[in-house]
Amino acid sequence: MLNQLRPALSRVITPVGRALARTGLTPNAITIIGTFGVVGGALGFYPRGEFFWGTVVITIFVFFDMFDGAVARVTGKTSRFGAFLDSNMDRVSDAAIFSGVILRFARQDHPDMMIVGLALFCLVSGALVSYARARAEGIGVGATVGIAERGERLIVSLVAIGLDGLGVPYVLVVGLWLLALASAITVVQRFVAVRKQLEVSEQP
Ligand SMILES: CCCCCCCC/C=C\CCCCCCCC(=O)OC[C@H](COP(=O)(O)O[C@@H]1[C@H](O)[C@H](OP(=O)(O)O)[C@@H](O)[C@H](O)[C@H]1O)OC(=O)CCCCCCC/C=C\CCCCCCCC
Ligand SMILES: Nc1ccn([C@@H]2O[C@H](COP(=O)(O)O)[C@@H](O)[C@H]2O)c(=O)n1
Ligand SMILES: [Mg+2]
Ligand SMILES: [Mg+2]
């Protein structure tokens, strides 16, 4: 859904991409810096219970994922390896966010197995959403559909974790339940989309 905002967002993102390109940073370097920033924010802050500041750091660095592509496009350095690196680093960042939450609530001094279980489910189902698209593309069909693509998943998780860090009650557990449900629905939506396309293309 948020993917549809891309053309409108590119009016803001492209000038930032141009400015970043003038620093001499390559798209791949921006991808890697963004990933280190998200992983550092998630694993440096979340296990210590610093959900607000962790979310602030992650939010800053997650935007690098929009700027790497913009820099690649404005400098003419778009590459297939860059696309491959970008997608794989997305999975590392996503895993780090939920791992940080899990590490917090699996600790003996703050145990909450409901949150641990939900965060684990969100980690695995989110990875499956992305894998379904990658595998679909591997067999020559598209699966860029669903109510919880990466942008939506990031927003729900970061808002829930960040607000929990500000002391808002129940927001984390409600956010994770929503995300778990939306991710599971998205997996089903992608399977259905792939099945439909294959039925059409493989008709005798
Ligand atoms: C009050 C204290 C709390 C603090 C709250 C903090 C709130 C933070 C809120 C939002 C921040 C998150 C912003 C999200 C930015 C998204 C950045 C991003 O991911 O951009 C790239 C993304 C994907 O691009 P790719 O094509 O390169 O990636 C592909 C994708 O990952 C596929 O994933 P899949 O869907 O399959 O799982 C992979 O399959 C593929 O491999 C991979 O290549 O691009 C987008 O998602 C496009 C649109 C994102 C638009 C986000 C706009 C957000 C703008 C503002 C949000 C502000 C909300 C503020 C709320 C504040 C509430 C308190
Ligand atoms: N290091 C990179 C990162 C991205 N790309 C190209 O941009 C596309 C993704 O753009 P986003 O705005 O969604 O980040 C990706 O498919 C590549 O074509 C790149 O070349 N190198
Ligand atoms: Mg990117
Ligand atoms: Mg990315």
TrEMBL record:
PROSITE patterns, alphabetized: CDP_ALCOHOL_P_TRANSF
Catalytic activity: a CDP-1,2-diacyl-sn-glycerol + 1D-myo-inositol 3-phosphate = a 1,2-diacyl-sn-glycero-3-phospho-(1D-myo-inositol-3-phosphate) + CMP + H(+); 1,2-di-(9Z-octadecenoyl)-sn-glycero-3-cytidine-5'-diphosphate + 1D-myo-inositol 3-phosphate = 1,2-di-(9Z-octadecenoyl)-sn-glycero-3-phospho-(1D-myo-inositol-3-phosphate) + CMP + H(+)
Primary location group: membrane
InterPro entries, sorted: CDP-OH_P_trans (IPR000462), CDP-OH_PTrfase_TM_dom (IPR043130), CDP_ALCOHOL_P_TRANSF_CS (IPR048254), PIP_synthase_PgsA1 (IPR044268)
Topological relation to the membrane, as annotated: Multi-pass membrane protein
Acyltransferase keyword on record: no
Cited Pfam families: CDP-OH_P_transf (PF01066)
Active-site residues, record numbering mapped to chain: D90 (proton acceptor)
Residues given in the record as Mg(2+) 2 binding sites: D65, D86, D90
Superkingdom of the organism of origin: Bacteria
Transmembrane parts of this sequence: 20-45, 51-71, 113-132, 167-188
Binding site for Mg(2+) 1: D65, D68, D86
Binding site for a CDP-1,2-diacyl-sn-glycerol: N28, A29, I30, T31, G69, R73, S79
Annotated EC: 2.7.8.-
The protein's enzyme class: transferase
Annotated localization: Cell membrane
Function: Catalyzes the conjugation of the 1'-hydroxyl group of D-myo-inositol-3-phosphate (also named L-myo-inositol-1-phosphate) with a lipid tail of cytidine diphosphate diacylglycerol (CDP-DAG), forming phosphatidylinositol phosphate (PIP) and CMP. PIP is a precursor of phosphatidylinositol (PI) which is an essential lipid required for cell wall formation.
HAMAP family, alphabetized: PIP_synthase
Family, similarity comment: Belongs to the CDP-alcohol phosphatidyltransferase class-I family.
Protein name, per record: Phosphatidylinositol phosphate synthase
